[in-house]
Amino acid sequence: MNLDFTQMTPYIPYMLEGIWVTLKFVAVALLIGALIGTLLALFKISGPAPLRAFAVAYTSIFRGTPLILQLMLIYFAVPQLTGYDITPFLSAITAFGLNSAAYISEIIRAGIQAVDKGQVEAAQALGVPYRAMMKDIILPQAFKNILPALMNEVITLTKESALVSTIGYLDLMRRAQVVGASMYRQFEPLLFVGLIYWVLVMILTLIGRKIERRLKASDIR
């Protein structure tokens, strides 16, 4: 096997810029997913029947269809149906945010339902409003339970972000493809960004473990 990374040297800064581009898109998509996912989880647990049905149907659709299909539908269908030329970035954060919301809603729902029911009963007995009870009592405890699952969702989203290269968004994967086409050698740039993805995932894993240890230590104290 003949590997030659010397030709790739001038392109390294260009590919490294893709780290920020990828992380920015993932962060925005996660924020969207967390906000919508929290609302969906609350709908499933205590919402009126129509909202509960909507949340269940939403989760079923977005978990039951491929993410790349959702991305393509948003990127190609929006201009066709509305005449609005949606950008790759907006398509990416919309598709990934909506998809992530379905998974996060299930994670939060499970975390909330894992909280001791006595906590809810005590809050209701004391006359604590529902919104305050969820914000100050239930959700903080649920967060400790769901942290590992949330970190897994962050890691999964970071890895799956490579799919946005299919719509021309200049993330890490797309930049590797551009460099490979310029060099007429695909393996080296793909191997290079593969290493970057691995480092990003390892960093996220370590951050998750550190936060988890701190939460456990706060419980002990």
From TrEMBL:
InterPro entries: AA_ABC_transptr_permease_3TM (IPR010065), ArtM/GltK/GlnP/TcyL/YhdX-like (IPR043429), MetI-like (IPR000515), MetI-like_sf (IPR035906). SUPFAM superfamilies: MetI-like. Keywords: Amino-acid transport, Cell membrane, Membrane, Transmembrane, Transmembrane helix, Transport. The chain crosses the membrane at residues 20-43, 55-78, 190-208. The keyword Zinc does not apply. It is a multi-pass membrane protein. GO terms for molecular function: transmembrane transporter activity. Residues 19-208 form the ABC transmembrane type-1 domain. GO terms for biological process: amino acid transport. Its main location: membrane. One of its GO terms (cellular component) is ATP-binding cassette (ABC) transporter complex. It is found in: Cell membrane. Belongs to the binding-protein-dependent transport system permease family. HisMQ subfamily. This is Arginine transport system permease protein ArtQ.
